[in-house]
Amino acid sequence: MRATEESVRAALRQVCDPELMINVVDLGLIYQIDISETAGAANVHIAMTMTSPACPVAPQIIAEAREAVEDLGEHVGRVEVELVMSPPWTPECMTEEARDELGIF
Q1: What angle is formed at CA 48 by the lines to CA 47 and CA 49, rounded to 5 degrees?
Q2: Are the C-beta atoms of 11 and 71 separated by less than 8 Å?
Q3: What's the whole-number mean pLDDT along residues 76-83?
Q4: In terms of C-beta distances under 8 Å and separation of at least 24 residues, what long-range contacts does 21-25 make, across chains too?
């Protein structure tokens, strides 16, 4: 299967923040997904943030995000997850469903 932005987002929906138990896509942590084809493989670059610059589980979430995308199959080449802090994350980044689940209105 070729990696597409939709398939990458679907894979990332399997990665949950272990403290909030909401996936990183619905939390609004995924800022950008770039896919480039090289020698028949899709190299994926993901720019993502955390809810806090001091997030203690950031390394775990980043590793799980990378693994989830790598698991898309043999046509996935290099997967790079870049942690960015600009623009800063705010609750407005979340989907309406995620805000409802956390009781943020």
Answers
A1: 140
A2: yes
A3: 96
A4: 22/94, 22/98, 22/101, 22/102, 24/48, 24/61, 24/65, 25/95
Query: In angstroms, rounded to a whole number, what is the distance separating the alpha carbons of residues 51 and 104?
Result: 14
Q: Would you place residue 71 in the very low, low, confident or very high pLDDT band (cuts 50, 70, 90)?
A: very high
Domain span at residue 11 reads 5-95
Specify the CATH number for the domain of residue 62: 3.30.300.130
Give pLDDT, residue 99: 95
Decide if 101 is inside a domain: no
- The single-letter code of the amino acid at 105 is F
Q: Which amino acid does the sequence have at 50?
A: M
Q: Provide φ and ψ at 42, rounded to 5°.
A: -95, 115
Instruction: Say yes or no to pLDDT of 35 above 90.
Output: yes
Model pTM? 0.93
